[in-house]
Amino acid sequence: MYHSALAPEACPALVLNADFRPLSYYPLSLWSWQDSLKAVFLERVNIVSEYDRVVRSPTTEFRLPSVVSLKTYVKPSRHPAFTRFNVFLRDKFSCQYCGDHDDLTFDHVVPRSKGGQTTWTNVVTACSPCNLTKGGALPHEAKMFPRQKPYCPTVNQLHANGRLFPPNYLHQSWMDYLYWDTELEP
Fold first, then answer.
1. For residues 64 and 13, is the Cβ–Cβ distance under 8 A?
2. Stated pTM of the model
3. Which of 27, 43, 51, 145 is the most buried (most CB within 10 A)?
4. Contact of 47 with 37, CB cutoff 8 Å
5. Interatomic CA distance for residues 49 and 151, integer angstroms
6. Pairing state between β 104-108 and 13-16
7. What are 51-71's pLDDT values in tens digits?
């Protein structure tokens, strides 16, 4: 019998595509222990690795999966969605005017009041002070220019940037499938 002091809630499963790559790096593709066991019973995933933690039903006990792989390959999106989070990720969670990492917003390089659109090529990450300072001015009017010209990233570029920000918790059993250089949790 296996026993661990870890609560089941502290045992998420890393979800890999059928090619054994994580579905997502940032946020890391994790499922709760309930979702991973449900997927096992529905035969949608293979168990790659398990925790020492066991959960019990009235008739049996189950070791919790720590890594699962999908049985069917899910083709990754080729074009990332334009979201606030993805803009921050593209810009590595730093203000494109001063480099600060706190109190982030996004800024329209060409303000909407001057015809600027909410697109990859016109929006950058900005801290609140810089955004307020720039206001509704064009870059040359405010004498504030983004450190990096805004662009539409690829999914691979977002994944690469996501690897720069590993989560606080990485289980040892996940490390063969992840590409971070960081201290490991037990």
1. yes
2. 0.70
3. 51
4. no
5. 39
6. unpaired
7. 999 999 899 999 999 999 999
